[in-house]
Amino acid sequence: MNGQAPLTIDRRESSSLAAVRQELEAAKEAVLESGKKLKFKEETADAAMAARDAAEKSLRLADLRASRLRDKVEELTRQLEELDGRETSTTGLNRPRYMCWPWQWLGLDSVGMRRVETQQEGANEMELSEPLL
User: Fold this and answer.
1) Domains of the chain: which residue ranges?
2) 13-63: per-residue pLDDT in tens?
3) Lowest-confidence segment of 27-31, 52-56, 103-107, 114-118 by average pLDDT
4) Taking the CA of residue 41 as centre, how many other CA atoms within 13 Å lie in the half-sphere pointing to its CB?
5) CA distances from 107 to 56, 71, 96, 125 (A)
6) 76 and 82 in contact (C-beta within 8 Å)?
7) CA angle 33, 38, 41 (to 5 degrees)
């Protein structure tokens, strides 16, 4: 029996050693997986920061363009008012500045002025307002 006891202890040690090796391999794989996840998170954070920086730069550029366009509109408005003032003082008329054909579809002949109803349009309204017999 003495010969079997060391053999049994040896088997127990080798089986526990195999279990420890398996745990070690599992831990190594977990560490590698965690490292990959961490690297992915760092790359994602870098990409997000780059996107944020690009968005901020784009907003600054848009603000600059809007400011320039606002200045241009103000300058053109001032020039237009100046020209309107000259035209009114020389002609003495207060007429519309321009005509735009799409406005005619909406019942306007010129900007700011309503078109006078024609006789037929008035007749159609009268027909619709008469009671049905």
Assistant:
1) 4-95, 96-133
2) 888 899 999 999 999 999 999 999 999 999 999 999 999 999 999 999 999
3) 114-118
4) 6
5) 46, 34, 16, 15
6) no
7) 130
| pLDDT computed for residue 13 by the predictor | 84
Q: What are phi and psi of 79, to 5 degrees?
A: -65, -40
- Does pTM top 0.85 for this prediction? no
- State the maximum Cα–Cα separation within the chain, in Å, rounded to a whole number: 132
Residue 105: CA count within 13 A, CB half-sphere: 3
Q: Contact 47/40 with Cβ under 8 angstroms? A: no
Structure tokens that stand for 102 in this block: 């799409």
